[in-house]
């Protein structure tokens, strides 16, 4: 089992259908995404949390959004996405992080002692002390899960890989709006940045070691 588990952006606002005009979903039937999140991603993250908690491993959650109510602290591209969505639907795609729906989904919510990183960038390392926190805890091998595979999950995993961590993407605990994007990200990551495992292989390993 890896030294630490990082769960990326499994927030209430991202795991249920929304009227917000997210360009990542244009032209896609994303019902399969929500079905995968409910039927596979959430249950597998629950299994991973159970295993990592039982093994007393480090657990981190990331939540994506703006730190300022007007979203002005987001990157140029994310601000543009929010502006376009507000113009067409009246809703933002990237939430204000103090909003209730910006919290991690209740089904996998953090418990006392687990770290929640509030970020306004796609990569978690870019705007936080995550890498330093991992090193201070002696963590060298990291499991990464969450939403969405080809954006914040993949970006965080690559950032950690570039900082000399041994990174593993948990394929069946991630999802993307497009299955093609999901699997292409998985294959690219496996070729250049780290390893890919399933929830079963990680949790079975923890049972064997225990």
List the helices and strands and how they pair.
Layout: E1 4-8, H1 31-54, E2 58-64, H2 76-89, E3 115-119, H3 130-136, E4 141-147, H4 149-162, E5 166-175, H5 179-192, E6 195-197, H6 199-209
Helix pairs in contact: 1-6, 4-5
Describe it.
The chain is globular, with a radius of gyration of 16 Å. The protein is α/β, with parallel strands linked by helices and 210 residues long. 44% of the residues are buried. It has one domain (4-209): 3-Layer(aba) Sandwich (Rossmann fold). Helices cover 40% and strands 18% of the residues. The mean pLDDT is 95. Helix 1 runs parallel beside helix 6 (199-209) and helix 4 packs parallel to helix 5.
């Amino acid at each position: 089992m890896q030294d630490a588990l990082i769960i990326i952006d499994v927030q209430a606002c991202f795991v249920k259908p929304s009227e917000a005009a997210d360009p990542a979903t244009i032209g896609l039937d994303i019902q399969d995404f929500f079905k995968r999140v409910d039927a596979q991603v959430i249950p597998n993250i629950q299994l991973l949390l159970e295993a990592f908690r039982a093994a007393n491993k480090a657990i981190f959650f990331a939540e994506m959004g703006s730190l300022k109510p007007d979203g002005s602290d987001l990157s140029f591209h994310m601000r543009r996405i929010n502006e376009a969505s507000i113009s067409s639907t009246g809703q933002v795609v990237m939430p204000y992080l103090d909003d209730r729906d910006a919290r991690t989904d209740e089904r996998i919510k953090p418990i006392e002692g687990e770290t929640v990183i509030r970020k306004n960038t796609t990569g978690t390392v870019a705007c936080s002390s995550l890498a330093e926190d991992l090193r201070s805890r002696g963590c060298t091998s990291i499991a990464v899960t969450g939403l969405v595979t080809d954006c914040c999950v993949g970006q965080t995993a690559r950032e950690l890989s570039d900082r000399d961590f041994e990174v593993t993407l948990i394929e069946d605990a991630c999802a993307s709006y497009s299955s093609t994007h999901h699997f292409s990200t998985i294959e690219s990551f496996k070729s250049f940045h780290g390893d890919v495992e399933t929830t079963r292989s990680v949790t079975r390993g923890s049972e064997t070691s225990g």
